[in-house]
Design a protein that fits this description.
GO terms for molecular function: hydrolase activity. Keywords: Hydrolase, Signal. This is Hydrolase, alpha/beta fold family protein, putative, expressed. The protein is of the alpha/beta class. It has a domain of about 210 residues: Alpha/Beta hydrolase fold, catalytic domain (Rossmann fold, 3-Layer(aba) Sandwich). It is built from 13 helices and eight strands. Strand 5, helix 4 and strand 6 form a beta-alpha-beta unit. It is globular, with a radius of gyration of 23 Å.
Length: about 350
């Protein structure tokens, strides 16, 4: 019996050697694709806590920054959700004079895993909405508040329309990023526009959708096509966007913002963001949402190099209840457009009408 388990010369059979080699390769691959654990702020070995923070429903902390008038004296309370690679210091850039005139208190926060907000290993569309609600409750913003979201951070707006519509008094979305695989989009047009992206961005979105667990490994391979948004290497068709991109790279601002955003780990900030936004939306998609009991405004530049204006138009036409504001000669980064922050705030708040 013993002889039957070995080769002719007493060595292990070829099948066993192949199995052992496969197990070794599988073990290497599992270790290679497993992202490192996060380094939460305030934990041993993690970055220090420097921001004001509140505790949310599951014990995590959200870091936030306030602007405008004092919370206690405000007529309007606005929560701001930043875009990809952003943070709590971002805003629509409305003037302080306008915020004071209208009595606006605005709070921006680091979304989960960004900046000084604790990572959420179970981050989802629903959790994005719940974080906004928990932040509002912790700061005692009252039964209703306004919401402004930017770029990729607008998935939190769609989720809020779905899960916490009773808490919102109004919402504005600034160039909301699109998932090309939403079933409600025209397939032919979405496919055509998807293929116009840089190859690295196409592959990044493909991995985020089909194999989000592979993102950390994929994005760290220099020989694979990866995101030009993360590297800052992709040019923009809009002159102001491109000017600001080059300036941010040359001054180091781009790198500084990325370090701040990912200081607890790139997996729990950038890559979880990509997995939620560009992955599967199993519970709903924007085209299925019913009209919410509050006004919704969407601002979109017609020279946006990140979000195809054609798909944005389709979504707004299909839903019907969104007040669509298309901006001629404007790109993706709306907060950089002089005066636009004031326009967004005055459009959103009824007292300014």
């Amino acid at each position: 019996m013993a002889a039957a388990s070995t080769g002719n010369n007493g060595s292990p059979p070829v099948a066993l050697l192949v199995l052992m080699a496969a197990a070794m390769v599988a073990g290497w691959f599992v270790n290679a694709v497993r992202p490192p654990p996060p380094t939460p702020c305030g934990a041993e070995g993690g970055p220090p806590v420097t921001a004001a923070r509140v505790r949310v429903r599951d014990g995590r902390f959200l870091a936030y920054a306030e602007s405008g008038v004092r919370r206690e004296a405000a007529r309007f309370k606005v929560v701001y959700s930043h875009g990809f690679s952003g943070g709590r210091m971002d805003s629509p850039r409305a003037s302080q004079a306008l915020l004071k005139e209208l009595g606006v208190y605005m709070v921006a926060f680091d979304r989960a895993g960004y900046g000084e907000s604790d990572p959420d290993p179970r981050r989802s569309l629903r959790s994005a909405a719940m974080d906004i609600q928990d932040l509002a409750d912790a700061l005692q913003l009252g039964p209703k508040f306004h919401l402004i979201c930017s770029s990729l951070g607008c998935h939190a707006a769609w989720a809020s329309f779905k899960y916490i519509p009773h808490r919102l008094a109004g919402a504005a979305m600034m160039a909301p990023v699109i998932n090309y695989r939403w079933p409600g989009l025209p397939r032919g047009l979405a496919r055509q526009l998807y293929r116009r992206q840089p190859v690295g961005d196409q592959w990044s979105l493909r991995v985020a959708y089909y194999a989000p667990w592979l993102l950390h490994w994929w994005m760290n391979q220099t020989w694979l096509p990866t995101s030009t948004v993360i590297s800052g290497s992709g040019s923009f068709p809009n002159a102001l966007d491109e000017k600001n991109r080059l300036m941010a790279l040359s001054t180091g601002l781009f790198q500084k913002k990325a370090r701040m955003a990912t200081q607890q780990g790139v997996q729990d900030s950038f890559y979880r963001d990509m997995a939620v936004m560009f992955g599967r939306w199993p519970e709903f998609e924007p085209a299925e949402l019913e009209k919410p009991p509050f006004p919704v405004h969407l601002f979109q530049g017609d020279e946006d190099g990140v979000v195809p204006v054609q798909l944005q138009r389709h979504i707004c036409r299909r839903l019907g209840w969104i007040s669509y504001h298309e901006l001629a000669g404007v790109g993706h980064f709306l907060s950089a457009v002089p005066g636009l922050g004031d326009r967004i705030v005055t459009t959103l708040l009824p007292a300014a009408a």
